[in-house]
Write a structure and sequence with these properties.
The structure is a homodimer.
Chain A lengths: L6 H16 L6 H8 L3 H7 L3 H25 L5 H18 L9 H7 L4 H24 L4 H25 L3 H17 L2
Helix pairs in contact in A: 1-2, 1-4, 4-7, 5-9, 6-7, 7-8, 8-9
The first copy, chain A, binds a DNA duplex through helix 3.
DNA sequence: GTCTATATGCAGATAGAC
DNA sequence: GTCTATCTGCATATAGAC
């Protein structure tokens, strides 16, 4: 872990990394402080509400960073179908390059906490909305009607999150590559 | 829990229900035996390898039942796009009727165990393949080329699993209803 | 602000009576 | 085959020294 970051930042980073790899319940605070190079006292100093608060901040930080990446990947293109296709193949490559782990999903936190923590459920919902809005805005800019754009943005978000589940299960980037093709076809057809 | 089922069956049923609601790590064996009405001794008598074995059997049983439902829902139709649409709206209704919980997904087990249990990861992979094959067979029967059918079957599987994550996060069946529309459009277009 | 030692509880697993 | 009592370990969280 980078020593240049503050203890607080290191804890958030470590939390993001470990939770993406292992999930929410399987990741213990002892492991987080070890990986983040900070003692337990600091954790409860910066995050008085414990694990829920630490994970909430970590999901927000991660989610907003991904939102930026999505918006940048889709900006200034004349080919929305191709841009979405390129973005997903990029995710697939990153996934393959990290031993079939890192793809930027928050699905494990969303699934594991939706039923027990309203705070974490709401945080995940807001991040998903931000991602979906990024897709929808781009589609609307290219002439797709608002309601249709919202639906296509929804299937982009859902199929990426679902494909990441399949990629991890099969230990292969193929599910992401397959849905990239089909989403490209869907968007191209919607513009006619 | 039904007293007519054997203790073994009750344990498997209870495991399926609790894990769909809470996830893998959040569901304890003590809760499973309480809900299933069986003592811990019976659990380790029937499942000597403990939680991993119990959950593996439970995922297989659940997964095969869902495979049957998919195949039945798609059999004997002249309209593949409409059949997929109807099937997904049926899942959305069941989800809404169960306080936004039950939709038949195995994503939480898949995500939580992909990195730590090869047995559970493989079991989930086989179930996902069975679902995907059910979609692909139907599409091929209706004249879609084999490779395209495999890709569409993949996006059906991925977007349903992903939409269920979104549905649980937003506490709404809308994500499933939205992807049902778009998958219908995609399949209809592929047949032309 | 930083760190360690500890409290409390429940997890999965096992031993052994019946 | 069925059941209970118990083991060991790690979880989150806290108290308090420095």
């Amino acid at each position: 872990m980078e020593r240049s970051l503050s203890a607080r930042e290191r804890l958030i980073q470590a939390t993001s990394n470990l939770i993406e790899l292992q999930g929410y319940h399987a990741t213990g605070l002892n492991q987080i402080i070890k990986e983040g190079g900070a003692p337990k006292g600091s954790l409860y100093y910066y995050f008085p509400n414990g694990k829920e608060e630490l994970v909430a901040e970590s999901v927000v930080a991660h989610g907003l960073a991904v939102t930026d990446q999505i918006r940048k990947a889709l900006a200034d293109t004349s080919d929305p179908a191709g841009a979405v296709h390129a973005m997903i193949t990029y995710i697939a490559r990153k996934f393959a390059d990290t031993d079939c782990v890192k793809a930027g999903s928050i699905a494990s936190v969303a699934l594991e906490t939706a039923h027990t923590s309203d705070r974490l459920r709401t945080v995940c919902a807001e991040i998903y909305n931000a991602w979906q809005d990024a897709y929808a805005d781009m589609l609307i800019e290219h002439g797709i009607a608002t309601e249709r754009a919202a639906r296509i943005a929804m299937i982009i978000t859902a199929s990426i999150e679902g494909a990441i589940v399949l990629c991890r299960t099969h230990r292969s980037p193929d599910p992401l590559l397959f849905i990239a093709e089909e989403l490209k076809a869907l968007i191209a057809q919607a513009r006619r």
